[in-house]
Amino acid sequence: MKVGSAGLISAVAIVALAAGGTVAVAAPIGSDLAPHRAVYAMSLNSTKLGGGVTGASGAMTYKFGDSCDGWTVENKTVLSFAYNEGAPVATTWDFVTWESKDGLHYHFRVRSTRDGVVSEEIDGVANLDGQGKGGLAKFTLPEPKTIRLPKGTLFPTEHTIRLLEAAQKGAHSLERILFDGTGTDGAFDVNAVIGKPVVANANASPAVANPAVNAALLSAPSWHMQMAFFLQAGNDPTPDYEVALRYYLNGVADEVVQSFGNFSLKGTLQQLEPLPKPDC
Fold first, then answer.
1. Mapping DSSP to helix (H, G, I), strand (E, B) and coil, where does residue 95 land?
2. Burial status of residue 71 (CB atoms within 10 A of its CB: 0-12, 13-18, 19 or more)
3. Which of 67, 85, 241, 273 is deepest in the core (most CB within 10 A)?
């Protein structure tokens, strides 16, 4: 199970609202990315009868940064699961990445534990041969392995930029290939459904009432999105997992729901703060 994901990558652009409720771009998305730190309280949102999971609680901390030559992500999720049978299980999931601003180079590291024992470690790099082209992902952990990335593969930040660009243009869906390094089986086909735009400040998130949440970061136009992730190497017609969230044009995400088939988790924004930008 993958908790926390590339679905939470931030981007910001200067915009103005155009007639008809669409958004007109005054600067390209990616030209002014906004580093920030967000903390989400995680809880069980739903579970299927006989699915095994009866409870879940914890927190996800998401940190997006600017390293001048690239974007950095630190995502740490701590969860405790209760089951129909047996004792509760404590899990952690750490995901650290760096992605070049041209979208062609990517470093990734994943570390998972179960009741304090390391259950998975993934480490590697990926490079594309050019914009819109394929490339290679090379893993050093859990064992040396090289896989081919197909033509059109995107890394996480670039994928989010494309999502927000599509939303600004009034598109209702976007299908792209994503490689995020959270597994060694290859890239995902990601099908995204994009809702209608919500005008800035027209429908403020409940999190705004929380003094630990920077309200200014939730004042941008936003869209509700639903993303389904299908492993390219798999044959199952159902997605490996799904993510529903509200994306603000400044890149902040709230109203997050992650679905894993038999159960789903809800992320409620508890803390939100801007991070300083480097003097490049």
1. strand
2. buried
3. 241
